[in-house]
Fold this sequence. Notes:
Layout: E1 9-10, H1 12-20, E2 25-31, H2 38-44, E3 51-54, H3 55-58, H4 75-84, E4 92-96, H5 102-113, E5 119-122, H6 125-131, H7 160-169, E6 171-174, H8 178-182, E7 197-198, H9 214-222, E8 232-235, H10 242-251, E9 257-258, H11 262-266
Parallel strand pairs: 1-5, 2-3, 2-4, 4-5, 6-7, 6-8, 8-9
Amino acid sequence: MTTTRPDAVISATALRxxxxxxxxxxLLDIRRDADRGLRHEYEAGHLPGAHYVxxxxxxxxxxxxxxxxNPLPTDDQIQAAVTGWGIHPSxxxxxxxxxxxxxxxxxxxxxxxxxxxxxxxxxxxxxAWTAAGGELTTxxxxxxxxxxxxxxGSLPTIDADEAGALARSGLLLDARPREAYLGDAEQPGxxxxxxxxxxxxxxNLDEDGLLRNDESLRALYAGHGVDGIAPLGLYCGGGxxxxxxxxxxxxxxxxxxxxxxxxxxxxxxxxxxxxxxxEPG
Length: 281
């Protein structure tokens, strides 16, 4: 039995209403790569009160040769971040980014995995906020004194062995762009986990970067064999893009596990099989 969870996503209009109500709202501006000058973009204008979040240091752990690109943060790491952002048990946490959805959906996933009870993805991100008449600021909030105590493990994960088995016994979705899934039989390390089905994370979005409506998304996943009953997992290149699909499925009431190591971990082990082409393999 599935249960719809509309609170996983918030529109820009609904966020403005929530802020106007005086609710305890913590805003997090998620940036993927500090080396590309994204801190400068944040400083140039962000939602009032939003904390700057650097994905690779706050939403991912230390990478090792065996971990994949974006391993999960440690309990201490995510606890320090939650405290610094001022998250309390009563807080509604809203995560957003500018541009592609995955950095923000990764933040939604990590915080929900850490047990934060009310985390919402701002549909359309910063651009949707300004389009709805929302203002931006260059002021930065002071570090908070959050009191929420994290409880990691609140969302399911699978490891490499479990992902390989799930591709055969249940359903494993590959959220990378289609070209990455197809791979090249002549190029070692390219392709997909044998048995995995291609559903690029971008298929969840419309041309404006907003999530497609629930009816369309249900049809998308039903067309790939998702029935809400069979065990389901998702992976991508480094454990980020797949969280967009998991967010959508969570909202639709369909549980799905994340393979955090994803393709960068799987393909780093030459003993693991690889399939190429259009068929799951």
